[in-house]
Structure formats: structure tokens, C-alpha cells
Specification:
Blueprint: H1 2-23, H2 31-53, H3 58-72, H4 74-84, H5 89-112, H6 123-152, H7 158-184, H8 189-210, H9 224-252
Helix pairs in contact: 1-2, 1-8, 2-3, 2-4, 4-5, 4-6, 4-7, 5-6, 6-7, 7-8
């Protein structure tokens, strides 16, 4: 019964976030975030219908939705990057390209080479390990993003602070509980089915609160250190590319 209450409440909060986003015209300002919320809302509603209409297939569809939720969660990190570096267009584009490249690499590894470090051939254990590894990669990228914000003292709006806090709660709790499930096995399934939706609901409430009012970043001076380091990196990269092109041109001559 507790699981159903958390489920219903989560669907209600997801719908509230979407409605508030439409009212404040936030969908274009935070496209990755609201795409994630819309996706999990549709998945939760669909799973509830399946749970009522065809319970025998619920576990299969729930497992697929869980993987989809983890994959789409990467979009929230891109959303954070996009807004934190919005005043640095060059750095923002570079970070998004690197982020998408890392995402594609991690996704390929998770799909084509699931971790079997425990030596278990149990399907449940392999699935839990793959999810844990994928979430751990997201956690590393997420912490790297926070490190950049902290190191350079970048200004973050109230909305993005809420997104960061909510995603940190969900991501951290997911990594910890998945690690415990991997170690102890299916015996922790009962606790997982309560803890996971509970922490996700906490994240949803934080996101609803943070998106209730749109608060843009206050105007201020740009961080010269960050801009200078990016310009230096771009200059070095351009120089290396010119040298490579010149070397290839000499090789192509007869």
C-alpha cells in the first residue's frame, strides 16, 4: 500500500511540474529537464495501467522503464551544464559535445559490455551491476559539473540550484541502493521498492518547489579566468590542428 501511495503521489507531482512549466513558459528554457519529467510521467502512468490491466507483464515493462529513466536522467546533467555555462557560449558548446560523447560511450559500454565483476551469471545481478555502473558514470560527470561551478564561482539561478539538489538526491540514493542490491542480491527487493520511489518523490518535490517561480541569473561580470583558459585551450587546439593539416599536406605531395 505504501508503494502505491508513493506511486500516486509521484505521478501527481510530475503532472504539477509539467503544468507549472506550461504556465510559466519554462519548457523552452529547460527543454532537457521537462522532456525528462514528461517521459517519466508517461512511463509511470503507463506502468500503473499495466499494473492494473495486465499484472503478469508489469515486471518486464517496469524493468525497461527503469533503464529508460536512468538513460534520460543524463539530460538533466546537460541541462545543468547548458545553464551554468550559458554566458560562455564557446565553453557551453564544447561541454555539451563532450557530455554527449561521454554519454554515448557510457551507453555503449553499458549495453554491449555489462559489468560482471561479481562473477555472477544471475540476470538480476548483471542488470543491477550495469545500472550501478551507468549511474556511477553519471555521478562522476555530475560531480565534475559541480566542481567547475565551485572552482570558478559561477553564478547559478534558483531554478538550476533546485534541479542540482533534486538530481543529486535521486542520483546519490540510486547509486547507494543499487550497490547494496548488487551486494546482497534480491533479498533487498522489498526495501528497494520503497526507498527508490521515496527518494525520487523527494527529488520531485524539490523540483516542483524550484520551478514554481522562474528566477533568471542576475547580470554580473563574467569570469575572466574561465574565459582565458578556454581561449588558451582553443588556441592550442587550433595550432595542433594546423600542424596536423600541414603534416598531412606534406605527406600527400609526391
Amino acid at each position: 500500500m505504501l508503494t502505491l501511495i508513493l506511486w500516486w503521489t509521484g505521478i501527481f507531482v510530475e503532472a504539477s511540474i509539467l503544468v507549472r512549466g506550461v504556465q510559466l513558459h519554462l519548457l523552452r528554457r529547460f527543454p532537457f529537464f521537462f522532456f525528462y519529467i514528461a517521459s517519466v510521467f508517461c512511463a509511470d502512468v503507463s506502468l500503473y495501467v499495466i499494473h492494473i490491466a495486465n499484472p503478469s507483464t508489469y515486471e518486464t515493462w517496469a524493468s525497461r522503464a527503469e533503464v529508460l529513466n536512468i538513460v534520460l536522467g543524463y539530460g538533466i546533467i546537460l541541462e545543468i551544464f547548458r545553464h551554468v555555462l550559458s554566458r560562455y557560449p564557446g565553453i557551453g558548446r564544447l561541454s555539451q559535445i563532450l557530455g554527449l560523447a561521454i554519454f554515448a560511450l557510457v551507453l555503449c559500454v553499458a549495453l554491449l559490455y555489462p559489468s560482471t565483476s561479481s562473477g555472477s551469471t544471475d540476470v538480476f545481478s548483471q542488470k543491477a551491476l550495469a545500472e550501478r555502473d551507468f549511474l556511477t558514470a553519471q555521478m562522476i560527470f555530475f560531480l565534475a559539473t559541480l566542481g567547475i561551478v565551485r572552482y570558478y564561482g559561477l553564478e547559478v539561478s534558483r531554478n538550476i540550484r533546485g534541479v542540482i539538489l533534486g538530481y543529486g538526491i535521486w542520483l546519490g540514493s540510486s547509486v547507494i541502493t543499487l550497490a547494496l542490491r548488487t551486494y546482497f542480491g534480491p533479498v533487498l527487493n522489498t526495501g528497494w521498492f520503497v526507498l527508490q520511489p521515496f527518494f525520487y518523490l523527494v527529488s520531485l518535490v524539490e523540483w516542483l518547489y524550484s520551478m514554481w517561480v522562474y528566477t533568471p541569473v542576475r547580470g554580473g561580470s563574467l569570469d575572466n579566468a574561465l574565459s582565458s583558459e578556454y581561449e588558451l585551450l582553443a588556441a592550442k587546439t587550433s595550432g595542433i590542428a594546423d600542424e596536423v593539416r600541414a603534416h598531412l599536406g606534406r605527406m600527400a605531395r609526391p
